[in-house]
Design brief:
α1 crosses α15, α5 runs parallel beside α15 and α9 packs across α10. By secondary structure, the chain is mostly helical. The protein has 15 helices and five strands. The structure holds adenosine-5'-diphosphate and tryptophan (TRP).
């Protein structure tokens, strides 16, 4: 029975899936699959850029990369349509400006892959409610409510509660080998593994490929303007595409200690220097570290060095971003081309699962 009337996608997908798997087993040297999702919940900042985007782009040189915009994950918290749609295009333009090559990397919106939601429903049947009760994000919301003395489930929607199942579907749909994420996402990857194992165990076959997390180096935690981890939630970010004058203002406003110009300073405990390390050459880093230690350099001068190096790194990206964001049709086309390439792969996984489950 054709479950997708009028659509040759499944036939194409099954052929492609079978060919892929046969081909892969005969060619163990074949590239592994790397996949990650980015939630469009705000403006991209340099923590995202140095901590996630640059690494993901370089991983794509060695793996078959599938990167997507997790817009349905964002919907849990973003209800203003204008803000959400601008954030989706902002993230798309941001990744392209940062060097994502849409010819090489399959780049798409989660919401353009309906198979994601079909797989989510199927995975629900294999996900213990207790597993979701233990999810960190849900537990944190409940805890916050308890502390505020309100209903423990106040403001908790089912999207938040089942967040890890949707994320498992994103990952499992594409036979992902590696999922680059920050350490905060470790539990979600473990849950995806657990759910996939439950499916495979039930049907006694590898219906779903078990993914592995790829944790970015913790040393790559980018400090924010106030010295804490840079994060939208702390309101301490440097947006990647901030206009030059704004970038300068943000840097000049960074709080510093009360050491005088003459006093020697410690580069390793200075967020200005930590940020400088991300965008300066090895030689420049050494020179600035020496100036810190020698004394005679005030915080203003260190900030000036940081501004120059960061602006040098970011200005080509900013120019590309400003061009791309003016062309929403182009951005939409890139994402829908990506979805077209992604869907047959996703459909193959869903078809495999349906067959194993007796719902084909
Ligand atoms: P935010 O904390 O601002 O909400 P997200 O959670 O949207 O950022 O992060 C998107 C990606 O960028 C994640 O993979 C995360 O690990 C990475 N990232 C975010 N902030 C930083 C940071 N300060 N240093 C390193 N990586 C970061
Ligand atoms: N939960 C991830 C985050 O907050 C975003 C995400 C959604 C994701 N689906 C994914 C990451 C699949 C990796 C793989 O950063």
């Amino acid at each position: 029975m054709n479950l997708y009337p009028g659509c040759s996608l499944v036939a194409k997908a099954l052929a492609l899936g079978a060919r892929d798997r046969r081909f892969k087993s005969a060619h163990p040297e074949m590239k592994k699959i790397v996949l990650t999702g980015i939630k469009p919940t705000g403006t991209l900042h340099i923590g995202n850029y140095f901590g996630a985007i640059t690494q993901a782009i370089s991983l794509a040189q060695d793996y078959d990369a599938r990167y997507f915009i997790a817009d349905y994950h964002a919907l849990n918290i973003m209800k203003d349509p204008k803000v959400l749609s601008a954030a989706i295009r902002g993230v798309a333009a941001g990744w392209l400006a940062a060097g994502l090559d849409p010819e090489k990397i399959i780049f798409y919106r989660q919401s353009s892959i309906p198979e994601t939601f079909e797989l989510t429903t199927m995975l629900m049947a294999f996900t213990a409610k207790g597993l979701m009760n233990r999810a960190h994000a849900y537990k944190a919301s409940v805890q916050e409510n308890i502390e505020k003395n309100v209903d423990p489930d106040a403001g908790v929607n089912m999207g938040l509660f089942t967040y890890p199942v949707l994320m498992a579907a994103d990952i499992l749909l594409f036979d992902s080998d590696l999922v680059p994420v920050g350490k905060d996402q470790a539990q979600h990857i473990e849950m995806a593994q657990d759910i996939a194992q439950a499916v495979n165990f039930c049907y006694q076959q590898e219906v779903l490929h078990i993914p592995q997390p790829f944790f970015r180096d913790d040393a790559a935690v980018v400090p924010g303007l106030d010295g804490r981890k840079m994060s939208k939630s702390y309101n301490n970010t440097i947006p990647i595409f901030a206009p030059e004058q704004d970038l300068r203002k943000l840097i000049m406003r960074m709080p510093t200690n009360s050491q005088t110009v003459d006093e020697p300073k410690d580069p390793d405990s200075s967020s200005i220097y930590q940020l400088y390390r991300l965008c300066a050459t090895a030689g420049e880093q050494q020179t600035l570290a020496t100036r810190y230690r020698a004394g005679g350099m005030g915080w203003g001068a260190a900030k000036e060095e940081l501004f120059m190096a960061l602006n040098r790194t970011l200005s080509p990206l900013r120019n590309t971003f400003n061009d791309l964001i003016k062309d929403p049709e182009y951005l939409d086309r890139i994402l829908s081309d990506g979805a077209e390439r992604a869907r047959p792969i996703a459909a193959a996984t869903v078809a495999r699962f349906r067959k194993a489950a007796g719902i084909d």
